[in-house]
């Protein structure tokens, strides 16, 4: 039996943050680039690929399905696509690790294949709800058995899928993407509507790989029966990784940093809007386009923050940034209220509960609600934090340590490598006080 790796950090004030920071490649884009390149015709090149455990797990799964993937240099992948009809049955279960994105998108992509597949994940992923993708996929004709709506997912191959018009009740790019990827192999038209627009990387990348698709914010429509053509993908730096430095430099007096070539897809940058409304000093410089995605340098200087009511319509645009926002809110004057964010309860951990408990351990007053929290800003004392193995919670409390009166001990940080390998090294180089316990 394998035992989860447990590592701890000790974070303490390191002084002002300075320098240029290159955050790793975008996780959402990296997952999708591997998936589409694998089932395209021809050889694709992916540059800026995130070498995190989540996206490495997705790449390893396609190798098990018979796709050759080369690594000519770090952060580059050359994928020898086999076409939508060229994947081969795997001999073993397919391990998605910690990645909700990997498992949910693969469920859609594998539902219409002629062979059976079994998708498994780690303890955290095994607790995450899958009915949100199983319901629409089964309506399309898929046959997928689960453990009462939770992983493992046993996909029976050889099902004839048909397109559906699906109105999702939750704003989830993973649900939308699973249905669209199943739609590639379905008879007729597949349409997905969402209650609030979510990140549109699947739609944009399908178009880049030559698949006809209509989409506008909140709705996407495609038909089965086309082919994907290999292409080049340039992956921008991940806004969600950059977010930890945006908050840290805002909070630590004297800080002045530049985050380079960060992906600025508007469905990802809600934290920027919210931090600016709280008083943050962040300039967008050199806004341009790389590989069809907006990118910019983000210049951040320290600024005092004041609490706000986070607009509910910003929530899907910053869904992964709440751990960092909770720290910003704890350091702001006044109170910050988050509503309409119940989805946070079904991430790698229950992020409302994990962040509230961690902040309380540092002396912050937090009133938790079913779909959010009210955070009362005030001084942070030191303390011990259980990250519950959640990468974003661990990184958020590393920021808290930079502005605490005493040290912050953060437990179980190994999963930081799922989305941000090398975070601790980069953070120390920028000036963080952060060491292994
Ligand atoms: O599609 C994606 O790449 C993602 C969508 C979001 O999840 P939901 O779709 O469940 O909101 C996000 O939390 C996750 O980190 C990545
Ligand atoms: C929720 C996240 O990812 P996933 O759903 O892919 O596990 C995340 O990275 O914060």
TrEMBL record:
Coiled coil: none annotated. Gene3D superfamilies: Enolpyruvate transferase domain. Pathway: Metabolic intermediate biosynthesis; chorismate biosynthesis; chorismate from D-erythrose 4-phosphate and phosphoenolpyruvate: step 6/7. Its main location: cytoplasm. It comes from the Bacteria. CDD domains: EPSP_synthase. The keyword Transmembrane does not apply. The active site is at residue 320. One of its GO terms (molecular function) is 3-phosphoshikimate 1-carboxyvinyltransferase activity. The keyword Transferase applies. Its EC number is 2.5.1.19. Residues 13-423 form the Enolpyruvate transferase domain. It is an enzyme of class 2 (transferase). Belongs to the EPSP synthase family. This is 3-phosphoshikimate 1-carboxyvinyltransferase.
């Amino acid at each position: 039996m394998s035992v989860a790796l447990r590592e701890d950090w000790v974070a303490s004030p390191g002084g002002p943050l300075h320098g240029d920071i290159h955050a790793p490649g975008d996780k959402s884009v990296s997952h999708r680039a591997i998936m589409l390149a694998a089932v395209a015709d021809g050889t694709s090149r992916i540059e800026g690929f995130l070498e995190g455990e989540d996206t490495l797990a997705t790449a390893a799964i396609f190798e098990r399905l018979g796709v050759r993937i080369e690594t000519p240099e770090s952060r580059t992948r050359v994928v020898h696509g086999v076409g939508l009809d060229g994947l081969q049955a795997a001999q073993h279960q397919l391990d998605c690790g910690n990645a909700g994105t990997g498992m949910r998108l693969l469920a859609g992509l594998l539902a219409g294949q002629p062979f059976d597949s079994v998708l498994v994940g780690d303890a955290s992923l095994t607790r995450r709800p899958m009915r949100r993708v199983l319901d629409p996929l089964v309506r399309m004709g898929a046959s997928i058995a689960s453990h009462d709506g939770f992983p493992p997912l046993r996909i029976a191959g050889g099902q004839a899928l048909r397109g559906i018009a699906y109105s999702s009740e939750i704003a989830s790019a993973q649900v939308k993407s699973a249905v669209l990827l199943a739609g590639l192999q379905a008879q007729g038209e597949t349409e997905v509507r969402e209650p609030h627009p979510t990140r549109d990387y699947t739609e944009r990348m399908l178009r880049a790989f030559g698949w006809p698709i209509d989409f506008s914010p909140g709705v996407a429509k495609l038909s089965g029966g086309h082919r994907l053509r290999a292409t080049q993908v340039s992956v921008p730096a991940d806004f969600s990784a950059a977010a930890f430095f945006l908050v840290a430099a805002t909070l630590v007096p004297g800080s002045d940093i530049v985050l380079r070539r960060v992906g600025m897809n508007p469905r990802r940058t809600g934290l920027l809007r919210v931090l600016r409304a709280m008083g943050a000093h962040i300039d967008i410089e050199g806004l341009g386009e790389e590989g069809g995605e907006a990118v910019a340098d983000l210049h951040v200087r320290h600024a005092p923050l004041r609490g706000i009511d986070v607009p509910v319509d910003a929530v899907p645009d910053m869904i992964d940034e709440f751990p960092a926002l909770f720290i910003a809110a704890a350091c702001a004057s006044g109170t910050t209220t988050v509503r309409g964010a119940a989805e946070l309860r079904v991430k790698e951990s229950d992020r409302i509960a994990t962040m509230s408990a961690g902040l309380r351990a540092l002396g912050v007053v937090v009133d938790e609600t079913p779909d959010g929290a009210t955070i009362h800003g005030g001084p942070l004392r030191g303390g011990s934090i259980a990250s519950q193995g959640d990468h974003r919670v661990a990184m958020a409390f590393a920021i808290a340590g930079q502005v605490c009166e005493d040290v912050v001990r953060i437990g179980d940080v190994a999963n930081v490598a799922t989305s941000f390998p090398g975070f601790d090294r980069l953070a120390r180089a920028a000036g963080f006080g952060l060491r292994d316990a």
